Design the sequence.
């Protein structure tokens, strides 16, 4: 049995894949210790999954203000030293990183200790932390083949991003007289998608268009949107958060979403066609690069954030609804991005690097 340090956090998109790999490693008899921050999603999700979690203090560097940059730079030496101390305490065989600002100090400390570094890169264009350490990694586990160019030749493997098995087990949706559209901007919601959905209702009503919505608004925008939806005469449900997202995917004919790596991995696993609206200003425009990869494969339509409003939403949904064969092809193309054994492959690669 070996100990593996799991580095990364901040967002659910970083923490959830780490937990999937950690569970697989635990099932193989290894111990996994997470290093993160008190303010990220890891502070809630990791203890709930019964894994030990140690804390460092570090903030972001990319696309932040001058004050935050100065604060992070002042934290960096201390966070590296703290991570080095924790590595000395737990004596891991491998450092496994999802990238992001939380992982940076841990990976630097791991390199200082001459430990094997395995990074999982979920995006087409790697994040800043993974780009900075790319030449030093032992293995890079990729979600998109386009990311291989940023790592040394021969050190990258396409494993995909771990996704809950329920997404892979969805049955094909039976044809219906109306199209069911799932709108989700992630757990926090998306103001742009919320506004576009609200604006679109009058177009659907005026056209007597047969549509049903499943809309995850996020907590902040839910009350006002739900009230207006109830008054609109539209069919469906507007909720702040969807607990059973695989079930929502299973009921949907079309998904409208942002283009984070986690959302795209779920679309691929479920084989669902999508309209992707990349988050503008996302670090290194990674959502735009991700969305373009799906678009080039014929798996999704891409609408820029500034171009998405109620009229455009109605136009895209009505056009695709009239082309069921096209929707089916898009879903089939999306499924080609799926990797059902991502966690298992990642665990096997980690095991192969344990001294």
Sequence:
């Amino acid at each position: 049995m070996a100990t593996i340090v799991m580095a990364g956090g901040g967002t659910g998109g970083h923490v959830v894949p780490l937990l999937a790999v950690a569970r697989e490693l635990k099932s193989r008899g290894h111990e996994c210790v997470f290093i993160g921050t008190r303010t990220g999603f890891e502070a809630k999700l990791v203890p709930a999954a019964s894994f030990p979690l140690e804390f460092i203090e570090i903030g972001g560097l990319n696309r932040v203000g001058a004050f935050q940059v100065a604060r992070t730079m002042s934290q960096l030496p201390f966070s590296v030293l703290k991570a080095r101390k924790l590595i000395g305490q737990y004596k891991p065989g491998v450092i496994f990183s999802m990238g992001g600002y939380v992982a940076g100090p841990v990976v630097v400390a791991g390199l200082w200790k001459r430990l094997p570094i395995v990074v999982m890169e979920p995006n087409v264009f790697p994040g800043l932390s993974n780009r900075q350490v790319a030449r030093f990694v032992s293995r890079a586990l990729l979600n998109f083949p386009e990311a291989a160019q940023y790592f040394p030749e021969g050190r990258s493997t396409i494993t995909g991003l771990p996704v809950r098995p329920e997404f892979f087990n969805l049955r094909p949706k039976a044809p219906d007289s109306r199209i069911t559209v799932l709108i989700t901007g992630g757990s926090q919601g998306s103001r742009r998608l919320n506004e576009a959905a609200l604006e679109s209702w009058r177009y659907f009503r005026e056209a007597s268009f047969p549509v049903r919505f499943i809309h995850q608004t996020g907590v902040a925008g839910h009350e006002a949107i739900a009230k207006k939806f109830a008054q609109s005469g539209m069919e469906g449900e507007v909720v702040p958060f969807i607990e059973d997202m695989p079930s929502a995917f299973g009921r949907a004919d079309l998904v409208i979403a942002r283009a984070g790596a986690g959302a795209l991995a779920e679309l691929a696993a479920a084989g669902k066609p999508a309209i992707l609206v990349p988050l503008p200003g996302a670090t290194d425009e990674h959502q735009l690069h991700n969305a373009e990869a799906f678009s080039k494969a014929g798996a999704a339509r891409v609408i820029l954030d500034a171009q998405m409003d109620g009229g455009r939403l109605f136009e895209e949904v009505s056009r695709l609804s009239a082309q069921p064969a096209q929707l089916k092809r898009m879903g089939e193309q999306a499924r080609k991005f799926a990797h059902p054994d991502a966690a298992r492959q990642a665990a096997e690669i980690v095991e192969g690097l344990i001294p």
Remarks:
- The chain has a mean pLDDT of 92.
